[in-house]
Amino acid sequence: MTAAVFFGCAFVAFGPALALYIFTIATEPLRIIFLIIGKSSEGLKSINPGEKAPSMRLLAYVSGLGFGIMSGVFSFVNTLSDSLGPGTVGIHGDPPQFFLNSAFMTLVIILLHMFWGIVFFDGCEKKKWYTLLVVLLTHLLVSALTFISPYSGLNLVLAYIILVLTGIWAFFVSGGSCQSLKLCLLCQDKDSLLFNQRSR
Amino acid sequence: MPEDRCGAGTFGGRVMLTFMASDSEEEVCDERTSLMSAESPMPRSCQEGRQGLENGEGAAQWRGQESEEDHEEDPDRYVCSGVPGRPPGLEEELTLKYGAKHVIMLFVPVTLCMIVVVATIKSVRFYTEKNGQLIYTPFTEDTSSVGQRFLNSVLNTLIMISVIVIMTIFLVVLYKYRCYKFIHGWLIMSSLMLLFLFTYIYLGEVLKTYNVAMDYPTLFLTVWNFGAVGMVCIHWKGPLVLQQAYLIMISALMALVFIKYLPEWSAWVILGAISVYDLVAVLCPKGPLRMLVETAQERNEPIFPALIYSSAMVWTVGMAKLDPSSQGALQLPYDPEMEDSCDSLGEPSYPEVFAPPLPGYPGEELEEEEERGVKLGLGDFIFYSVLVGKAAATGSGDWNTTLACFVAILIGLCLTLLLLAVFKKALPALPISITFGLIFYFSTDNLVRPFMDTLASHQLYI
């Protein structure tokens, strides 16, 4: 199989996660490390005196993304490396879009993990136990879809619908609102945007 | 014929390699497996406390005594609190900040080295073919029974570790009796071999793999330039980034040699034994590596810059010029005009001389913020890469195992660096990483891999 398949599928599956990592995490490595080892430094305290929740959101995002990347990598990297070798896909009647389906499925799993992380942490913080249950059940649902249903197209569509819903939920949970979304999209309130970013 | 040339090259290579291995053992032994931060100046009372510590009391005992007295306080506090008058929270925060910075500064080169090794193993067939063994692992593993194979690997390990121990002690003795010229000559011989011979073999194999033709004059020019610049950068002066790049490359080359010539089971047992030896050699009061580090600190000299990867280099404005005669043959090879490390926090990083300033050194000024790098021995790079490379080389060509080992080593390195920020003395870098690496390798290879293979082949996602 060609190099085009390899690179295409690799970027489809890991591109967004890598972009998120490069633009949000790699630029602030110290802050992330501090969060992970659990010590809020003087610097963080000065930004948000006495408020733990924003840094917890950042930790939720980072850990969700980390889990997602590991899960995606472990499920897809062997398939990717096989795509560089010789072979014909679907020679025995399997769907010939095996690689592309796998790549999109990996992408949706990575992003879902990230959103689940945010929602889960919030649920633990605010002691909303039904949130945890819903996260668990959606995860089971998405996995069970891949197990049970042989139609990969249907799996993908359902998984992406769940992704959009979970994404909206995570957006509202982490403090976003329709107002802030509108301001962000219209690039109207620059100060507000920066303030939101920093306190995240 | 290509086979003959390959055979002759390999045979010659093996003979040379055994000779080389003796050098490389030496090279691998000294300072290879200890990880130390460039020393921060500590107040006198604290250093006396440390002397008391080194007089045979275990660190655990000392901590026990301290914690009895002030058990409410943060256990980090038993470490010298630095400049008196600093608030304790700030001190702890600075400790953690330096630890975190060092984590980042070392992740990149370790990752690069491992990437080079794994990329080579996966593409160049030469390094996974069995073509004999080193003279230090004479027992073969092609035996009929599992027990015999295990016994042979244990014996191989015993021989290898004894060779390493003897070489280390020999080196420490040489260093103690100030035979600098001998050590210097030995180091130059080893790096000559690495930079020229191993590079030549490596380049030859890579060209063969990709079926690229290269004529001898071009090859000679390339290898000569590469090797000569490498010798200059490593043993004399050069840009920091170039020196770091060369150190990474020679570590990768050495790791590839180990991966090729160590038989499978012996490699795993050797990795385990070497981390135990590292722990003992660096932490025990009479351990050779600890004595080496302490002697170097007493004499206010850097330890074999050719064998340590240093992540940053800073120099001071107010420092008196170092007396060259006091340095001996191991003259500091760094030019004070070299740029210092990039400071992502935007603090004023006062440039400082690389040698640790003792309190009371004439002309020294204590800066407020000491911007120092962290040093990691090349042997640590080598053994990390051997672990990951072996994981990539064995049998199934599975990437999950390789990635799991890679993550394990980075986690171990992170923990070791945080411990370093807390303890502020030379620490062994191998034990935690190699332990995690071995655990992750065996569990991933035997438990996770079959499971993930089945999942991936049916497009099942969990």
UniProtKB/TrEMBL annotation, chain A:
Encoding gene (name): APH1B
Keywords: Membrane, Notch signaling pathway, Transmembrane, Transmembrane helix
InterPro entries assigned to the protein according to its UniProt record, in alphabetical order: Aph-1
A GO cellular component annotation in the UniProt record: gamma-secretase complex
Ranges annotated as spanning the membrane: 59-78, 98-122, 129-148, 154-173
Keyword Amino-acid biosynthesis: no
Membrane topology: Multi-pass membrane protein
UniProt similarity note: Belongs to the APH-1 family.
Localization (cell): Membrane
One BP term from GO: Notch signaling pathway
Binding partners and assembly: Component of the gamma-secretase complex.
Function of the protein: Potential subunit of the gamma-secretase complex, an endoprotease complex that catalyzes the intramembrane cleavage of integral proteins such as Notch receptors.
Top-level lineage group: Eukaryota
UniProt source species: Delphinapterus leucas (Beluga whale)
Main location: membrane
Protein name: Gamma-secretase subunit APH-1
From TrEMBL, chain B:
Example GO molecular function: aspartic endopeptidase activity, intramembrane cleaving
Gene3D superfamilies: Presenilin
GO cellular component: endoplasmic reticulum membrane; gamma-secretase complex; Golgi membrane
Gene Ontology BP annotations: amyloid-beta formation; calcium ion homeostasis; intracellular signal transduction; membrane protein ectodomain proteolysis; Notch signaling pathway; protein processing
Transmembrane portions of the chain: 103-121, 154-175, 182-204, 216-234, 241-259, 265-284, 403-423, 429-448
Family under the similarity heading: Belongs to the peptidase A22A family.
Protein name (record): Presenilin
UniProt lineage: Eukaryota, Metazoa, Chordata, Craniata, Vertebrata
Gene encoding the protein: PSEN2
